[in-house]
Amino acid sequence: MQVLAFDSATSACSAAVWRDGDIVAHRFESMQRGHAEHLMGMVRTVLAESGIGFRDLDLLAVTNGPGGFTGLRIGLAAARGMAFAGGLPCIGVSTLEAVAGGVTQSEREDARVLVVIDSKRGDIYAQVFSGASGLAPVSDAMAVSPENLAGLLNAGKTTQNSSGGRVVVAGDATEKAVAALCDAGIDAVSGTAPPGPDARTVAAMAAARWSQGAPVEPLRPLYLRPPDATKPKDGGRLRP
User: Fold this and answer.
1) Maximum C-alpha span of the chain
2) d(CA 114, CA 190)
3) Potential cystine with 17: which of 25, 84, 169, 218 (Cβ 3.0-4.6 Å)?
């Protein structure tokens, strides 16, 4: 089985080819902007390095948010176009799940995993996962202020298969989150996972879901806050 995965939803851009359990080609570059100019070049590079053509792929995978509006739409548009052109199934993986997937088994043992991504607007995109095998989510993904992260964790304690105690924090808002949680008296530590989603993890997660028979749903962006841009009054028409 061969999977092409890519991500452009946050402050990086990456692409990877997964083949029968191994990553055979990978590109990753941190960037605040320029995703549109870099993404397809990365895709072409990893396909060439893996020695396969587009028609050899079995599955596509892409991050579907939350993240930056522009980068997220770029990735989803590319995935939809390629899926339509090649008649390929495409699985969306949330950026929060992808970051959680980078936390090692030893780190998350007997702990919960809190993934936090900076929204660049003062709040944080956050979700709590069980540290047990499978990293099952034990809270909804939501946008919260740092001071409300403790409440999100406390609410997650009542969810089945969750646990209290130590919290491993991952994501590019880790420093901010750990400080807020420690101030609230919660045992929170920084994990060693990459600060953002990586196409390698996205590919592996999508391949696992596909092999388990997970349904392929239409790609939709996961937005956790309204857009900053709003429609002008009177539709932008000039007043008489």
Assistant:
1) 67
2) 10
3) 25
Kindly tell me if the per-residue pLDDT of 182 is higher than 60.
yes
Which alpha helices (DSSP H) does 129-169 contain, by range? Answer: 149-156
Share of the chain above pLDDT 70, in %: 89
Locus of tokens 């996205």: 202
> What gap in Å lies between CA 82 and CA 155, rounded to an integer?
40
Query: What average pLDDT does this structure show over 126-131?
Result: 93
| Among 8-12, 108-112, 125-129, 180-184, the least confident range | 108-112
Closest to 18 (Cα-Cα) out of 191, 195, 211: 211
Please name the residues in contact with 196: beta carbons below 8 A apart, sequence gap of 6 or more: 7, 10, 11, 12, 30, 95, 99, 117, 171, 172
CA distance 156 to 192: 23
If we measure between CA atoms, which residue out of 21, 11, 9, 10 comes closest to residue 200?
Answer: 21
Q: Give the C-alpha separation, 198 to 26, whole Å.
A: 9
Q: Average pLDDT of the chain?
A: 90
Q: Considering the entire predicted model, what is its pTM? A: 0.89
DSSP lists the bridge partners of residue 225 as: none
Q: Do residues 162 and 83 touch, judged by C-beta distance below 8 A?
A: no
Q: Which domains does the chain have, with CATH numbers?
A: 2-96+196-211 (3.30.420.40), 104-190 (3.30.420)
Preceding amide of 66 cis, omega within 30:
yes
Is residue 8 very low, low, confident or very high in pLDDT (cuts 50, 70, 90)?
Answer: very high
The helices-and-strands tally (H runs, E runs) of the chain is: 7, 10
Amino acid at 231: K
